[in-house]
Amino acid sequence: MVRPRLIPCLLLKNGLIVRSQLFKVHQDIGNPISTVKRFSDWNVDELIILDISSEDYHDLRRDDLHQRYAGSTVLDVLRAVAQVCFMPLSFGGRIRSLEDIRLRLSAGADKCVINTKALEDPRFITEAAQRFGSQCIVISIDAKRHESGQYEVYSNRGQHPTGLDPVAWAREVERRGAGEIFLNSIDRDGSGAGYDIELIRAVTAAVSIPVIACGGVGRYEHFSAGILEGGASAVSAANIFHFYELSYPFAKKACREAGIPLRESRLTSRWLQREPIYTDEERDRALARAKVVEYRPQSAPLPPQRVRWCTRCVYPSISAAPLEFDEQGVCMGCRMSETKNAITPEEWRRRRELLRDILEKYRCRDGSRYDCIIPVSGGKDSYFQTHIIKYEFGLNPLLVTYNGNNYTPTGWRNVHRMKEVFGVDHIFYSPSVTLLKKLNRLAFIIMGDMNWHAHVGITTLPVRIAVQFKVPLIIWGEHGYLDLCGQFSMDDFPEMSYRDRLEHFARGYEWTYFVGLDGITVQDMIPYQYPSDQELFELEVRGIYLGNYLYWEANEHGTMVMERYGFQISPEPFERTYRRMSNLDDMHENGIHDYLKYIKFGYGRCTDHVCKDIRAGLMTREQGIELVRQMDHRKPKDLYRWLEYVGMAEEEFDRIADSFRDPRVWQKRNGIWEKANIWDECTADDTTAAAC
Amino acid sequence: MIAVIDMGMGNLQSVCWACKHIGAPVTVASEPKVLEAAQALILPGVGAFGDGMRNLRHRGFVEVICRQVKAGKPLLGICLGMQLLAEEGEEYGVHQGLGLIHGRVVRLTASGTGERVPNIGWCDVTITNPASMLFANIPSGSSFYFAHSYYVACEHGADVTATIAFGSITPPAAIQHGNVYGVQFHPEKSQDVGLELLYNFWQHAAQHS
Fold this sequence. Notes:
The structure holds two protein chains of two kinds.
Chain A: E1 5-13, E2 16-21, E3 25-30, H1 32-41, E4 47-51, H2 74-82, E5 89-92, H3 98-107, E6 111-114, H4 116-120, H5 123-132, E7 137-145, E8 151-155, E9 160-161, H6 166-175, E10 180-185, H7 197-206, E11 211-214, H8 222-228, E12 234-237, H9 240-243, H10 247-257, H11 280-287, H12 332-341, H13 345-362, E13 372-375, H14 380-392, E14 397-402, H15 409-422, E15 425-429, H16 433-447, H17 452-468, E16 473-476, H18 480-485, H19 498-505, H20 533-539, E17 542-545, H21 554-565, H22 592-601, H23 605-615, H24 621-631, H25 638-646, H26 650-658, E18 666-669, E19 672-675, H27 678-684, H28 686-689
Parallel strand pairs in A: 1-4, 1-12, 4-5, 5-6, 6-7, 7-10, 10-11, 11-12, 13-14, 14-15, 16-17
Antiparallel strand pairs in A: 1-2, 2-3, 7-8, 8-9, 18-19
Helix pairs in contact in A: 6-7, 14-21, 23-24
Chain B: E1 2-5, H1 13-21, E2 26-29, H2 33-37, E3 40-43, H3 49-58, H4 61-70, E4 75-78, H5 80-83, E5 88-89, E6 95-96, E7 103-107, E8 119-124, E9 126-127, E10 143-148, E11 150-154, E12 160-163, E13 172-177, E14 180-183, H6 191-207
Parallel strand pairs in B: 1-2, 1-3, 3-4, 4-14, 5-7
Antiparallel strand pairs in B: 5-6, 7-11, 8-10, 9-12, 12-13, 13-14
């Protein structure tokens, strides 16, 4: 007997994995290699990757990540993905010829998924099946349900109606030699409303080849209906697998509990290890930045790409945050902010009740543990989170702080005040300063980010404490990238995940990377060691973001916590942003850490804050651009504390920093680094002047 | 070192990546002489029996493979590669195989109880010979990934080390005769258990060379 399968489907757009809605709106989820690697860790049955790129090149858009691929074509991405993929891999998108199929199969695909070409020239199905075998020809059918209840097949990623009935078309592709059908519902895409069972049942009844159902899964419970009611051989989904920790194992568990005999798979295997393995050779290469005077990155030159800016806020297209633009040139951060602002008070009330349900579910009944964990830096968000959890919902949280040894005096006072004003227990965890100095220096050289330790410490330590104290719920503030760059939709309710931590916070550099460098041992790295998947699965640890459930306006929260709890803001202005209440816990986060973002990508924290304030209606785009012009490039004074702290000369710092300048952004002319600026756009191009 | 025999058909890279992942040095053998220096041979393959044999013969592999096997070198056939180990195959006409295992390659037929040909997907493998070195540390009943329309009907039941249930028959999932091994599934696409199996093969080869 062949077992039914549960198959994650990934959408690849110009080099990044995206989330899709109605086949139209795309939001960047992230790096294909780390995403596929994570699915590999979860021992998945099979994987489908569809390339929906609008242009020919692929680009990760930032060079400081560990997980990269060489080259800029879809085959380069496929080859890189295949190296971490020990399950059957189906690859589709932009397949126009037999040669396209051959190239994909030899680059590591086991099956090819074909859609538009089959509709344009049905004979192609037969030719492909004869040449490569039916088993590797999967025909993808995108169907839409009209208001009349009639279904119609669409081509070109759901763009063009074909007049075909999906059942008749399914029969034809089977007759012509297709080995499998990948059936997607256009109107259910990204809806989270569950599969279109009627559509699936109609198609599975008409053909004898396996049908993979896709489109609409919003909860783990939705999967089983595709098989039990729809008669599909396999069930697939894209978005849901990106939102939650261990989404695949939990989805599989739900299916097996519903009686579907999915393949049993383990989470612990010596062959599918979660932590990446780094070679001495690659580490030597990374550390060479500190030694070589004119360091040249190894990556292949990329096609020249003009930086452009969101027409509504001031975000650039080459950025640290994964950001997608729509057809009007508006970034997804602005789009999601619109969606968020359009949420009605009634909907916010509903969300608050959703939050209440979760909190009640995890409330400890017998006093044996804390109700939840709140990771706190002592900033305004920490105060707000604790205020909500302790006083609005009446839970007893355990506060956990990672102390990166960079507190400002005001930040130090704020964080230690929390146990007093909230009457809660607080773990204030301070790693060895000797270790911190080493990590600061090494991470700056390796990835141009001295605050690797802080980003990873903050996202690891609370999870470790959760597992150790057996507290399954962690309450984070807002999902930074949902807010900043619209990485997710407001209906996704994304939760904390290892992938997010490794890819975004750790830039692909796991704690193991540092072991052996500068005498650092495994034991030294305890604060950065994330609990195992098995531990997380058994305790069912979840990290939710309050921003998904409560209206989040940082400026308002700031005022409230100052008045109510005596939270203090910075007595003097920061150099690199006009906001005074952010990042008091880390003088470098707003300082040289952020200056390095400017060196890499050409923008800084002022841009981030301006974008948020434009979206909140607190300033105009012109005012924002003026602030960016004044602040983004400033070299901050905390640099000198840091240089002394780690023992580095400013000249060495500048030299290493320059080696991280993104070639898409920066050009050196006559010995001076230059880049395009958002204010040039306003004067140089009359057509966009109106927008400025 | 493992030599992966290149018949000019299908994707060798997946097998190579899997070997690298388990720590086995691996090379693609595009010409016969490469096999001589290897400690173990893998004959992968996707495609039809006749084409496979024709390509092996055309590239001069047949004689070298048989000589190496006779000298005791472990050989693992995967999918079509396993079928080529048999004496003959009946896919698109009768073709002679390598004859390293007594048996014929015959077509799977659905007996009307829901199974389909080609048989594609994860199937539970029953280990019929618990002493089989390939399945060390792999529980009987583990699922492996299959994609095939034919199977090897072995002449000697003792050569069969594992089977699957397919309607009323139990075609071999794995066979072994001396130092000749074959698996009908794709270990390189069977996640942790597949990697474990490749590791077992490599460990065995490394110890005996």
